[in-house]
Amino acid sequence: MSKATVKERARYWFDNTMARGTAALIGWLALVSLVLIVVVSALTMWLTPDEALRHDGWPGVLWLSLMHALSPGKIAGDAGTAPFLAIMLGASLGGIFIVSILVGVLSAGLRGKIDELRKGRSRVIESGHTVILGWSEQLYTIVSELTKAHASQHGSVIAILADRDKPAMEDAIRARVGDTGKTRLVCRTGRPTEPGDLDLLSLSTARTIVVLSPEKEDPDAHVIKTLLALAKRAGEHPPVVAAIAASRNMAAARLAGGPGVHLVDSDDIAARLIVQSSRQSGVSVVCMDLLNFDGGEIYLRRDPSLAGRSYGRALDAYATATVLGLRTPGGVVLNPPADTTIGTSDEIVVLAQDDSLIRLANGTAPADERHIVPATAPAPAPERTLMLGWNGRAARIIRYLDGYVTPGSVLDVAGDHPGAGAGLEGLRNLTVNVKECDATDRYALESLGVGVYQHVIVLSDDRYDPGHADNRTLMTLLQLRDMQATLGEKYSIVSEMHDENNRTLAEVTEADDIVISDTVIGLLLAQLAENPHLAEVFTYLFDSAGSEVYPRPVEDYVTTGGPVAFRTIVESALRRGETAIGYRAAAKSGEPPHYGVVLNPDRSRAVTFTPGDSVIVLAEH
Length: 621
What we know:
The protein has 621 residues and is of the alpha/beta class. It folds into 4 domains: 6-119, Helix Hairpins (Orthogonal Bundle), CATH 1.10.287; 130-259, Rossmann fold, CATH 3.40.50.720; 272-375 and 521-620, Alpha-Beta Plaits; 384-453 and 455-490, Rossmann fold. The protein has 20 helices and 22 strands. The strands form 5 sheets. Strands 3-2-1-4-5-6 form a 6-stranded parallel sheet, with helices on both faces. The mean pLDDT is 84. It is found in: Endomembrane system. The chain crosses the membrane at residues 21-47, 84-110. It comes from Microbispora rosea. It is a multi-pass membrane protein. One of its GO terms (cellular component) is endomembrane system.
């Protein structure tokens, strides 16, 4: 290669200085302006000495040249000889080019700065703030719920980092969430997997970090990479809450995040909720009411005065809170045996409107024995369930259902999904049959003889995008409800949907339960972001190995048609080994946002129940 010439070296040096940005360009313009002023002044002193003397010599000529370079209009007021006017004209023409270039450079530089500010690349200077990393539909639920939780707090901040345009994020949240009250949102553009971008959010002083599962291919890989980036950073490590889409990735995520991460298994929780809802109508509504911040919230409370008391007696301990269970050194137990003794180090799991309202009761009225219905244990019988559609969590749903039903039960899977019926080896109680069917076709549904089933589960087809899948689910629900009305058949219908906004449309179908999995996961993440210590409580609540939420017919517990205090229902449930936490009024089951669910009711207030109402209890299946 030939040696670089002087011209090439000069060009290379010039290019490097120009690449330094707006400041370098302004510097070059200043240098060119200085050269122009010096040259014009020298020519004036040399060619027109009389005009130079008239303008006070060198200082005056330099000032005159500067004014003509910066303000070309000055030439209109000049007077003198032709050479002097020609020199000033040259200064003005040179000034026109310099000022034009300067205006363009300043405009481009200012536009670049504005674009940089729009992207949100400045560091967040906050303390005690909640950080959300990533973007998904769950973000709107989390922001909405945290806004409710912080409604009485001044200076509450939620900082969001996502690979999106900052104004676009703010507009989307404003459109979906609305007014955030006293909670301030701070959006930053960046990649949650990049340590440099994470430094923008002052994570060391954050209260909690929430990692969202993105809406892209292989979302768990993105979450795990983010957890690795969080684990490797220096400084304080606040609690981390993350959602994992596939259960098989839980071990890898736990290893990546370390002991300070609380993981939510989205697939597992959604599958359990669908199974529980299919067997007891209203479970998902109750769970969503437990998880949101609209009404009651779950707290862990230690009261030394309750040490030595049995769990059954502690159910009457609080005037404005409902006892759910205990947190012992061995872990959380909801609805423990009534004779369980509360230890000095145990914490009470309670449901209350607010922690500031929790107080011990001075005394409670006894249960009214006249209204308590004796417990009866119906003999278990085989069941017939119809599953319409198939998706990635269908096999898990069937396996969980197999643990609930009695031997001899039948599950028929009807759909046109190519993977329907796969991965079902080792079932103990269920016999599974697969049938070809288009679940949106009325005639295909009628050919199934849906009236012979007790339960129908409608799954969202994962071959389609969420919006189209919800549309197909709505079509199926409408067909089933019309068939029930026309043929006089009776069976429960539970459906799975993606978009919370479609719930209002789905209510027209009068489905017994609608599970919005993304909303449930968003509510759970919001609860853990507010109090990570509740992870044990919710893990137990959604685990089939212990007690779960069940809405059960009120007539199985107390007499209907007359006023009954909730204290009487608590006693009736306790005699069955259950913990009553609320009720659901059938007449209001279609009214949002609670759909007739009342949790943590006033124990002394009498309510008149009618057949069709439900008592919400924690019980083993």
